[in-house]
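pipeline/complex-builder :: batch 7 item 3
reading input block
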Amino acid sequence: MQINVYKCMRTYRNTKLGGFVHILLNKGVNRKNKGKQKKYKNTVALIYIHTYNKHQQKMYKDKTRCKFMKIAIVGATGYGGIELIRLLHNHPNVEKITVFSSSQEGKTMAESYPHVQDIVDETLEDINPEYLQQHDAVFLSTPPGVSAELTGQIAEKTKVIDLSGDLRLKSGSIYEKWYGRKAADASLLDKAVYGLTEWNREAVESTTILSNPGCYPTAVLLGLAPLTQAGAIDANNVIIDAKSGTTGAGRSLSAITHFSEMNDNFKVYKVNEHKHTPEIEQELSRWMQADAAVTFTPHLVPMTRGIMATMYAPLEKNWTENDVKKLYQNAYHDQAFVRLRNSGTYPCTKEVYGTNYCDIGITVDERTNRATIVSVIDNLVKGASGQAIQNMNVMFGFDETAGLNIVPVYP
Ligand SMILES: NC(=O)C1=CN([C@@H]2O[C@H](COP(=O)(O)OP(=O)(O)OC[C@H]3O[C@@H](n4cnc5c(N)ncnc54)[C@H](OP(=O)(O)O)[C@@H]3O)[C@@H](O)[C@H]2O)C=CC1
Ligand SMILES: CC(=O)N[C@@H](CCC(=O)OP(=O)(O)O)C(=O)O
């Protein structure tokens, strides 16, 4: 009970009520008489829970009690998994995290990641659908092919947030062409909601199967959405040039990403054949209400985290830089995690390091009538685990920024 009280308080500390209760409480605890102090503290705390629950019930609309979540993470030993743990550790509505593994059952998280010793003491469980269903939300931070299987077995009784690409493409045949593996059942693909939160919030709110976007598509689509939706560009003429740090490839070693291959090097890969191409095209054509075929070229750079997507978009008519700036201001002025740079300045990946921000710089070259959009994210946060938690917050009616209010790690 006490823990819940303080979790509640942490959530509402910055509200008027929360501040008032804190003053009351702190005043009370300075009372001389210890006995009175304890009684006073609990009385105030109980008032707080009652008030907090009333507020939460209003927020939830369905009159449930204040939710303290039991979370399951499958694939917890991967980079997405450990990032989920880092971010959920301080989430005010998360009470318990259970970690699941297909190969490390019985081991502790600290055996995989010593840096969480004394912070995360959960032991890794074997992946068991019945047990998974006893949690309020299940994050699948697993390779392609796993959630296509597992989601159908658990989605009846819990909410699934899938970080893999299995449920993003509505067309199974397109998935099979680009991923080279069997697609999930069409019924799952129909039900899954694509969780580009800023552009799909309403659908995210009411789904029980959330398909979290890929890292490149997140940076690209947030960068292109305002111009595409305003009909200012034809996505078929857009060139997308994206660079990623090596954690985008996951924790397991590969001949492409190990140190000797990446150090002092800069690589292009999967030219005209990256699996994110159809995902980007799917969303752009939804916005354009017309087919979209883009050129998307990914690159690997010797850095741990970060994605920079630079998009070159011919404008359909003579738009000034001011027109475009206004378009982006209108689109993102009230979005907590999308920040726009002032004219003439452009974001770099360090400026979003470890956070759920997507920072965007944009300019129009009136000489060529072409817009250049620069969009940066941390591939493991806004590109994966952070956006997954942002979607969880929307799905459960929590403050959308809960657990994600972090200042970038700089330098
Ligand atoms: N890294 C990134 O920047 C991004 C990654 N993604 C996607 O998120 C997912 C996780 O990525 P990431 O954490 O980087 O990958 P990792 O390779 O680091 O981790 C994946 C984890 O999945 C588990 N796993 C492997 N095989 C199976 C299996 N057959 N059944 C169940 N679990 C299995 C492993 O844990 P164990 O052996 O303990 O089961 C492994 O630690 C992937 O689909 C990835 O494409 C999406 C956006 C960005
Ligand atoms: C650097 C690097 O290898 N990045 C990965 C993208 C990770 C990702 O987002 O994968 P999913 O779409 O499967 O979730 C890649 O290019 O495949």
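note: Residues 1-6, 8-15, 59-66 have pLDDT under 50 and may be disordered.
queue -> next item
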